[in-house]
Amino acid sequence: MQKPFNLFAAVENIYTPRQRYVLLVASLLGLAVLMLLGLAQYLTAFLAAGILFVVFRPWWVALVHKRRWNARLVTIGILLITVVVLVIPFYSLSSLLLDRLIAFAQNPDQIMGVVHKVEKATGFKIAEQLNVRQLLLQAGAKVSGWLPTLASSALNFLVIVGLMLFTMYYMFMQETYFLLGLHRYLPFRNETLEDLGESLKNNVNANVLGQVVVALVQSILTGLTLWIFGVPDALFWGVVAFFMAFLPVLGTPLVWGPAALYQFSQGNNGQAIGILLVGFIVIINVDNVLRIMLAKRMGDIHPLVTLVGLVLGVEIFGLIGLVVGPLLVSYFLVLMEVFRRENRTHQQALAAAEKEVVRPPLAADPASEG
């Protein structure tokens, strides 16, 4: 049977194999950039799904691989835990914080009253009303930028949460294909992939699990301290302390410090001194002790990496940048170490090859000549 005539076989391609290879890589990169631009506003959903995959994977391995539980039921249980324990409380606490900041920005009379009383007590001019209002507006806008899903429509928030849960479902249900795909398509050696995976696990443990524990403990201690010493809205300021605790330098002193000033302005000097004593002796020391203990147990991350990563990540990714930022810095350091290792191996190979080239020929054995 005669084969059909192939029109394209008779046409000469103008590109060399090398040029076709370069154009193929450029096309892949261009399509990847277009996809990232199209999904930019939903990027936090995929990042959060990857982080939660790392957090819940030990549970998944223990229940599915070791105890042979049904994979679909375990996955649905993980998704329910995510919604009940993480999504709903986070949405509620963030909404409370954002609404209160907006209310303070629109009606700063209460804060101005405290500022004037502090000025009378200290004799220093702190700020004009316009400056205080401007600072509050800037704080509200900054928090809105950190929480874009809450500052935008509820529909956008639901879409992001839905994408996150949908991605998590398929990452767990197709775990083997997902991990094999990473090894197949990422341009790294297996040793490098292991280093990157270890860095990811350490960052997630230190900056998600560990940091949440530290922030929760500090939040509870701050809220109880303010409630005991008679500061109004102690519950709200405890919620604020939870978010402030993620900042590695300032943290909860941004909450209980102004609370002590408020009590001084009201003439409650004993309560103000009590807040300062508890803050400096208990809250700060609990923070330091917990950070050291959890850093050793959950992930050995240098504090400078965490600090630079937080500043970088929150500015780019919002609140999810608390994890993504330190991860980017850690990955940069890991890849620098990989580059150093690969470059040293290459130089050793070149040196060995040069020795083989310049090695003199072996002298003939006189016995064999005889």
UniProtKB/TrEMBL annotation:
GO terms for cellular component: membrane. It comes from the Bacteria. It is found in: Membrane. Pfam families: AI-2E_transport (PF01594). The chain crosses the membrane at residues 21-39, 45-64, 71-91, 154-172, 208-229, 235-261, 273-294, 306-334. InterPro entries: AI-2E-like (IPR002549). This is AI-2E family transporter. It comes from Hymenobacter cyanobacteriorum.
